[in-house]
Amino acid sequence: MSAPMIVSHVPLWVWLLLAYLVWQGSQALSDHTVPLRRVVLVPIVFIIWGLSGLISRSEGSMAPSLTWMVAAASLIPAGYRIGPRHMTIDRARALVHRTGTPWPLVRNVSLFAAQFAIGMAIAMRPEQQFALGLLRAALSGALAGYFLGWALAFRRQYEDAGRMTA
Length: 166
What we know:
Largest sheet: 3 strands, antiparallel
Helix content: over 70%
Strand order of the largest sheet: 1-3-2
Shape: globular
């Protein structure tokens, strides 16, 4: 099966997700103020996408689940440490002011591309499904772990902002 044929069978939601991630990342290039709910939407999307990798077919093997868990646990500290930076949180109005950075655009598109490439590889090389499935589990776990760490760091900042105004 050719790559163009496989790409033509990619579900619409995948292209919509890519468009959303590019749009969100492009917004992050300049200073901006956004509603609190928009700040947490991308991490939620990636955590859910990462969790979906845990539910993938393991064909009776524990290896994908263990790979997922190790990758998730390994990246939680990185997400927490790198996490949301250069933000000012206005809890009263549920707004977040962020300074411009290319990091979210690069991160989001790179992670999407990696997930997409693994999916394409699995479709094009079904005989390597187990090995590629382990790679998908590792990436999915890493996504979930990183963004869980990010969310924990954001929650800490949000709580700190409440203490500063109290």
